[in-house]
Amino acid sequence: MHAEARAPREGRQATYRLRSGLRPICPSARERGCGVFCVEHTNDHPSIKLANDNGTPRATWQGLMQCGHIWSCPVCSSNLCAERATRITTAVAKLGGEWHMVTVTLRHRAGMRLKTLLTALRTAWRRCRQGGRVQRIWSERVTASVRATEVTFGENGWHPHVHVFLRTSEWSDDEKDALLVAWKRAIERELGPNCRPNDVHGIVWTRGHAAYLAKLGLEATGLGKKGRKGHATPWDIAGRAAEGDDRCKALWWEYVEATRGCRRIELDDRAQAAFDDAELEKECAARLDAVPREEPLVIEVQRDDVRALRMLERAIPGIFASVLHAAEERGRAGVLEWIAYARLRERLRGQGGAPSFAHWREHRASAA
Length: 368
Known about the structure:
Layout: H1 3-22, H2 29-32, E1 47-53, E2 56-62, H3 74-95, E3 99-104, H4 114-128, H5 132-141, E4 142-154, E5 157-168, H6 173-191, E6 203-207, H7 210-221, H8 234-242, H9 246-259, E7 265-267, H10 269-288, E8 297-300, H11 303-312, H12 319-330, H13 332-348, H14 357-367
Antiparallel strand pairs: 1-2, 1-8, 3-5, 3-6, 4-5, 4-7
Helix pairs in contact: 1-12, 3-7, 3-10, 4-6, 4-9, 8-9, 11-13, 12-13
């Protein structure tokens, strides 16, 4: 398998495995059932759709319930962040122009609740741009924006901050100072003088190619981000919590509660309109394209098969990703092989001595 094809599969396996590990400690019933229960109120069976993605087979589950929690579900977060990344890069390409990234943060200390910090961060960022000189500058210069919120944890506790992509003309140093002063004042109003940002880190401006800025900001909020300088990402915390670390469990529950209902990545109306226009143009072009496209292969899976795989997930975390990998490598035969093994394990449940998948597969091949 080529390295470029293997890397996405390894990433998908990691997200599915982490989701499996988090099930027992998820406070949300919807997250506990994400990806392992069939969608109700439909007569359609669940299935796997196998499509050709620029020459690479790409399998996805259909008909399984998805929680849609972008902050706290590894699989949904990965999928939704990828979808948001497409929206951002499409909108940026459509709009063109000059883009800057502004990173805003605040001072914090150990023991401060994440919900308090996140609420203050969002409120202060909105307030610092309302009224007065900053609002006039913003209206004159900024013609589109995208916001992505990031959270890490370090020796001084929770550290939330926001990356804001701005389609804007150049700000003078004096105008940047005006925004910084308004930001510091807004944070002090929300959290007091001890959390007032300093002049160096309160607002950081980054200038570069629009695609680079979008990639930089989205990587900062993604599952693959690694903590730096002693900071842990939420996924670092989640992994340790899934392994039984009690302190990380408490931190994870606080994180899940604090981020509930918050928007993680948000396009403003102008950026969203640019994306919609680009998608409409793409749809119209596709209608004019007379080249026939290959229809995806749909591999139907019975509801009882899904239940057997769900039982097997306890022994093989990430099994639902393994089935997708098998579909991409061997098509229907690869999926049916995993289902047959899951059914066998279901029948042998409680009897002990169940073979591993590798041993069972080897024995099956020799018997054939």
